[in-house]
Structure formats: structure tokens, C-alpha cells
Amino acid sequence: xxxxxxxxxxxxxxxxxxxxxxxxxxxxxxxxxxxxxxxxxxxxxxxxxxxxxxxxxxxxxxxxxxxxxxxxxxxxxxxxxxxxxxxxxxxxxxxxxxxxxxxxxxxxxxxxxxxxxxxxxxxxxxxxxxxxxxxxxxxxxxxxxxxxxxxxxxxxxxxxxxxxxxxxxxxxxxxxxxxxxxxxxxxxxxxxxxxxxxxxxxxxxxxxxxxxxxxxxxxxxxxxxxxxxxxxxxxxxxxxxxxxxxxxxxxxxxxxxxxxxxxxxxxxxxxxxxxxxxxxxxxxxxxxxxxxxxxxxxxxxxxxxxxxxxxxxxxxxxxxxxxxxxxxxxxxxxxxxxxxxxxxxxxxxxxxxxxxxxxxxxxxxxxxxxxxxxxxxxxxxxxxxxxxxxxxxxxxxxxxxxxxxxxxxxxxx
Length: 413
Fold this sequence. Notes:
- Helix 3 (72-85) crosses helix 8, helix 8 (247-260) crosses helix 9 and helix 10 runs antiparallel to helix 11 (329-341).
- The protein has helices at 19-32, 50-58, 72-85, 102-116, 131-142, 151-154, 160-169, 247-260, 285-301, 304-323, 329-341, 372-375, 388-409, and strands at residues 10-14, 35-42, 66-70, 120-122, 147-149, 185-188, 193-196, 226-233, 236-240, 243-244, 265-271, 277-283, 347-354, 357-364.
- By secondary structure, the chain is α/β, with parallel strands linked by helices.
């Protein structure tokens, strides 16, 4: 962090308009006497963002230094969809909804800093979490000489009581529900909602119902299943039930299907990049449907070797995103291989949605590698000579037979 003897002149702050980032905004002003530029990204978190402009104005930010941008289409098209081409899940289950938002926020923050001539950027991530790493790796990858200010690592506040006191001293409104210790914290965007904190810190206790925000309880979902079709072109979803949609519009529609049927809940005890385990509750309704659909169309269109290699590469790709290495060469190399595999991943899948479950029930593609004439149990008209299997098996068994013979001779059997 810059010392008061060498303060930044202009700082671009990732600003939500909430209490914590409002405190950070005022702290930057009082600590450094610097000019602050606020950047608020609409990634589909479902909140009205214009109040962030009013709060910034009330705290003395010039109108020309307030940036509020709708990045929903950019987010889904350039970040979510490339990730889903890889079928990326962290530790087998987490769809990386928070992780994948950070590269875009960092990118736009740096672009704004360069545009307004700022010499520093600031984020509100804590010193215990992954987001500080994700933001800052993004900053440094895109602007290696940028100054980064991370207040949670550097200020003297010891806890929430200190923050509230500072807010009151500085005339920052403190909502009544923010005065006590928050029952849990929430991060949201168009892909997911994540919740963690006090009410969720005991991993032995079931997630309370009041934590869920994006999905109905599966037990209360409709008693009749609903069928939908999802269309794909080169690995990306392009429509639902035959209706073409933009990336953000499509994910929004899938979210509504998932909400209605209680799809996409995840209770996870995960390994953070910084070394500790944390318990989070994630809701990814549309993403859960999309993952099942994408794997379904790949079943028909990907060659065995390509499909299996993708599954081997996926954990490394997912780890890159989780740990904040979106802009690293290894992620870009993996992306190039994954995108090449999607050349013929085009067609349609049919899904059954029912009480928390999404079930693949059909898939078709003009590029399908499935051949009914070869796989059939009926007369295949010479398409496959079953006698060929004998030589295939003997060649693959050769090393096993040699091993067995050696073990017999040495008495190991």
C-alpha cells in the first residue's frame, strides 16, 4: 500500500454502492486526499445500480468520475460461455460463478484507470478470501506497473464495530440491518449467487431456508416435469425451444427455468487458494442446466479421444479460473485446445426438468458420430465384423499375458 508520504493521486474503486465500499471510498479520501473514480459493473446481480451513482455523488464524486456499465452480454459471451465449453467445475461440483466474474471487472477497471489517467486501483476483497488474488492477478497481468490498494489488508479497523463507527463519523448512512453482525454475505451475478459467513460457518448444520434466493425448494417445485430443448452452435448455446437468443438473454431464461424447478443448489466445503477451507452455498440454476445440455451435445459430436482429453484438461482449466489465472498463458493455451474441440459441437438437446433435477433425455446433431447401423444388435449389413474383435482383444491382452507368465514362473501367483 502507498504510504501517506507518497499517496496515489487518482484511484479507480470497484464500487457496489453498498456500505463496505462506501466506507472504502471515504477512507481513500480521508487517508490519501486523492481523487476517487467509482466503477460499478452490472453483471446481472439483480440489483438496481443507479442508487450507486447517487451515493457516489453524495460523497463528493464528480459525475464524470462515476462509471456504471451494463456488462451482462460481455460477461456471458466472453467469459461464461468459454468456460462452459470446457465443462469447468472446481473440485468436481462448483461452477465457478464468482471466480469467472473477476477477470471482467479487473479488465474494465484497468481500462477505466488508463482512460482517466489514474495511478491506482482499489478493490474491497478481504485478506482471507480468493477475490483479492483474482482481482490483483488480473490487474497486474493487464497493467504490470499499476498501484493496488487493498484496504482490508491495510487499514486499522479491527472489526465491524470499527467500520460502523467510522461510517457514522463520516456521515455515511448505515442501514439498520447492517448494524449487527451480518447473518451471511452474498455475491451475485447472472451466473450464480454465492452465500457464506456466520449462518453457514458450521459445516455440520444444514443451510437455513432463508439463505436461498434464486431457487424454490425442490420439494415445492411443480409436480409435473417440464421439457425444454437447447440449441448449440460450435459449443455455445444459441437458443431455447427453437427461439434464438443473445448469450445474456439465454442465461436469464435458463435461470428462470432453474428457479421454477429448484435446480442448481450446492452446499460446498471448498479449498480456497489462500489455504483454508470455507463453506459456501451456491445457487447456479441456469448454469446447471447449461452444463448438462453442453455435455449432452458433446456426447453426440465429440470423438472419444477428444472427449476424454477434454475431461483430463478440465480440472487444470477450472483451477486456473478459481485461482485467478484467467489472463495467464496456460489458461489461454487450454482455451485454444478446448475451442478447437468445439468445431462440430452443434445441434440440439432435450432436457427434463423436475424437482431439483435436470435430466438429459435426447440429443441430435447434423455432425453426430453416433451410427445406429454400426451399434445395432440387429443385422448391420456388414458394417462391423464382430470377428475383428478377437484380434483386438488379443493384442491388448498381450502384455497382460506376458506379465501373468512371468509371475507364474517366479512363484508370485
